Known about the structure:
Elements: E1 7-11, H1 16-27, E2 31-36, H2 39-49, E3 53-57, H3 63-77, E4 82-85, H4 101-129, E5 132-137, H5 150-170, E6 175-182, H6 188-193, H7 198-207, H8 217-228, E7 239-242
Parallel strand pairs: 1-2, 1-4, 2-3, 4-5, 5-6, 6-7
Helix pairs in contact: 1-2, 1-8, 3-4, 4-5
Amino acid sequence: MKLQDKVAVVTGAASGFGEAMAKRFAAEGAKVIVADVNDEGGERVVSDIGDAAQFVHSDVRKGADVATMIQTALDAFGRLDILVNNAGYRHRIGPVDSVSEEEFDRCFDVNVRAIYHGVVKVLPVFRSQGGGVILNIASTGGTRPQPSITWYNASKGAAVIATKSLARELAPEGIRVCAINPSAALTGMLYMHDGEDFPERTERLISTVPLGRLNDPEHVASAALYLVSDDASFVTGVCLDVDGGQSA
Length: 248
């Protein structure tokens, strides 16, 4: 029970990495706010977890929604110890000039602006409690970019740099900030944006992973559990690759 008596907010928790983290945190004793724009998926995750979880509809691009999700944690569970900025968006694969301005804006709004909103809204809570943990889910694309998803890579690179800078700035206040850089996994984001050649592309992706398989949300949940727990109390500013050796 590594997170006994802790309270966590996980964005994008209706599926994929977010769902896996929310369920793992709850299994380790945490109370969890499941935040997402997907009401059906979010309610399903809460139903799976039980009384230790509550769903909040939250569009992380909007400061007011992020403030509401944080206040909900305080109202429901009395405190907040962990904020996981997991919600993400990736534009379709293609040349840099094939990405529309709308897709570009959404990519940076979900992947970068949301971190800003989360940090700004949670800081007063963490400061009043004397500490807390912020975990950003970035990507190997932010440190080892591949072609055809340039603007996505750029947004995740911003998340990585923000994590390191925040860690240095907030450490004196007892607030830790870390990130996870996952490689491609069989989540909705991969299915949604890889087009009709999905089986062939999957095989190509697997061929680039030294461990010989795609990522799994449970691997990310395990890494996240360590980083947000007291086991990592002397760890901050780390951007942990969970990628089967791709970044080695």
